[in-house]
Amino acid sequence: MGGQPKQIYPLYQVLFPFYEKGFKAVDLFFTISGFVFFFMYRDMIRGGKITASQFFVLRFSRLYPLHLLSLMLVIVLQHGYESIHLSSFVYRFNDLKHFILSLLLLQSWGMESGESFNGPSWSISVEAFLYCVFFVGPAKFISHPHRQVLGTSNGL
Questions:
Q1: What integer is the mean pLDDT of 64-68?
Q2: What is the DSSP string of 86-134?
Q3: Does the pLDDT value for residue 54 go beyond 60?
């Protein structure tokens, strides 16, 4: 929680478990998703029943429209806030470089200077990375049933 006094967080006394340990839910989500994705797509990828382009269209068509809408909304709201207060609202790396990274879902791949624009979208960026890594796993490395644990961890 970044060293901020806890009193500034809304309803901290009631919601403190979420403020203090809520990040663990994201880890759990990625873990469960890894298992689900592996068992859902393993045979289709390995058997060539789904191409890379089909896989990525299916996955990104669910993520990208809302990501793009929220990115544009945050830019508009951030601009309005900055014009009144002469400072950024939350994230200070709201420049062209970070806009392009966010637009391409690369904002959490190690090229960023820090969180920018829509900070919580880091999870979508990580998800995009995992999709790329995931597709290669079943197609290239999972040729024997006893290696399924490796494939499942690749889906994480």
A1: 94
A2: SS-SS-S--SHHHHHHHHTT-TTSS--SS--SSGGGHHHHHHHHHHHHH
A3: yes
